[in-house]
Amino acid sequence: MGAFLGLAAAGTGLKAFGQYQAGRQQQAMADYNARLLDQRAVATEQAMRVETEMGHEQARRLKAQQRAAYSASGAEITSGTPLLVMAEQSAIMERDILQQRRNRMIEAQQLRSEAAMTQYGGQMQKRAGTLGAFSTILGGAGKIGLASMGGGGAGASGGKIAGDTSTYGMFNPQMNTIASYR
Asked: Distance of alpha carbon 17 from its chain centroid, rounded?
């Protein structure tokens, strides 16, 4: 009987270790995924800066083209309709640049939020693995202790009930009871 108790203890230990390791691996995967999301957020911010600079450069070129076209036609560009058209076009381009920046900033923030939630999920998986390991150890210790006292698994396995040499018990899972038989 001692060999069986040793095997039961070893099995409990291996199962607990497996649960603990699985939790650690889940956290490691979550940490990796969170780092990838953070890297995407940084890349998004870098793209935002490049796009903003390109937008401003494009706006400068368009303003220069407008001034040249108005000047070539002989129109006065310091007042009147040409000035209003150039000012309106400049405002539209700046609004578009700012909207594009805003969209990229929102995208980067969403990626960072997703990274934080992924990391938190990994921490919870690790905690669940650790608690599962402790639960397995405690449950296994309880079963081993009952078995070593001669009462292990009596109801659940249909064996003898401890202390009663004439009655056998059978567990009924639907009724959650132990029925006695002679």
From this structure: 23
Alpha carbons 83 and 122: distance in angstroms, whole number: 59
Q: What is the pTM of this model?
A: 0.65
**What is the token pair recorded at 44?**
């998004």
Q: Is 174 helix (H, G, I), strand (E, B) or coil?
A: coil
Diameter of the chain measured on Cα atoms: 119
Query: From CA 142, how far away is CA 124, in angstroms rounded?
Result: 26
For residues 108 and 176, which has the higher predicted lDDT (pLDDT)?
108
In angstroms, rounded to a whole number, what is the distance separating the alpha carbons of residues 37 and 43? 10
From residue 130, alpha-carbon distances to 11, 121, 134, 172 in Å are: 17, 14, 6, 32
In this structure, the chain runs to a length of: 182
